[in-house]
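Appendix B. Chain record.
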Amino acid sequence: MTTPGSDLLRVSFDAESSHRTREALRDRVVERVAEAT
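Structure tokens predicted for this chain:
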């Protein structure tokens, strides 16, 4: 059984990590576009 606090913490951590992953993917796409032009 988990407490609401730890559940909320996990959800916010997942959101933060997915946000970082999106930024990393975007940076990679930007690099590829810069090489192509």
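Further analysis of this model is presented in Appendix C.
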